[in-house]
Design goal:
There is one protein chain. This protein is an alpha+beta fold and 252 residues long. It has a five-stranded antiparallel sheet. A three-stranded antiparallel sheet has the order 4-5-6, covered by helices on one side. Helix 3 packs across helix 4.
């Protein structure tokens, strides 16, 4: 127990006073340390105090510029991400347009077509002619070939070719002597008609009782029909020329 004179009041140290003393001691320690460090830096670098202030200012300025550049990098990355998304959407649209263009090219006959279908082989009649007989009775005419082509399309054919000539919307079939003109090319028998489409439906339509095939067989024309799991039709090799026709909207 502390002893105090009877004339004086006992003096006690409060917690606040202790805290203030610790804080003041810490501040004093930091100030001394700062001064020592500064003196040490000056001694080591041998730079005047004004030069140190300039270097400090330059350091702070560089830190500010670095922060601005980091912000700019974040913005540029965001813009780059937006550009990449836009480019991806553009590629998707380009792929859609490419698929549409490829479909239109197939419909116009500009691409090779392959799939299940039929192979129809036709030839002139092998019956010998007797004196006085009409030679046209043993020759396969363009109307016969055109009838077979029409029946194939009516049976569901999606692409047809005759002796390698693709049948398109502007194809004309006609006779020149004993040969047939197709796409302005002369074709001679035997005729090999290839159709891509549903084999059973096309065969049923060709073999119907009042069809062209039955009529040809009735007059001894050889007709051979074969189903194919995979048959091919070549692309149209001619040119398109429209002198009078123009694309328009609905016309009545």
């Amino acid at each position: 127990m502390a002893w105090f004179p009877s004339s004086a009041r006992p003096w006690r140290v409060t917690r606040l006073q202790v805290s203030m003393a610790v804080i003041l001691a810490a501040v004093a320690f930091l100030a001394v340390t700062q001064i020592r460090n500064e003196l040490l830096i000056r001694q080591q670098l041998r730079l005047p105090s004004q030069r140190l202030e300039e270097l400090g200012f330059m350091l702070r300025e560089m830190e500010r510029q670095r922060a601005a550049l980091e912000t700019q990098i974040v913005q540029l990355r965001s813009q780059l991400h937006a550009y990449e998304q836009g480019a991806a959407q553009g590629r998707d649209q380009l792929e859609v347009l490419g698929r549409q263009l490829e479909r239109l090219r197939a419909l116009a006959g500009h691409t090779h077509i392959a799939g299940p279908g039929l192979i129809v082989e036709l030839d002139d009649s092998p019956l010998p002619l007797r004196p006085g007989d009409d030679p046209n009775t043993v020759i396969l005419h363009y109307t016969d070939l055109q009838g077979v082509i029409n029946d194939l399309f009516a049976g569901g054919a999606e692409a047809v070719a005759v002796n390698g000539e693709r049948i398109i919307s502007t194809t004309g079939v006609n006779c020149v002597g004993t040969t047939i003109i197709c796409n302005a090319k002369r074709l001679a028998p035997p005729y090999r008609v290839i159709a891509v489409g549903p084999p059973d439906e096309m065969l049923a339509y060709l073999e119907r009782p009042d069809g062209v095939v039955q009529a040809l067989r009735a007059f001894a024309f050889p007709v051979k029909i074969t189903k194919g799991v995979l048959v091919g039709v070549p692309a149209y090799r001619g040119s398109y020329r429209f002198t009078y026709a123009r694309p328009t909207g609905p016309f009545e």
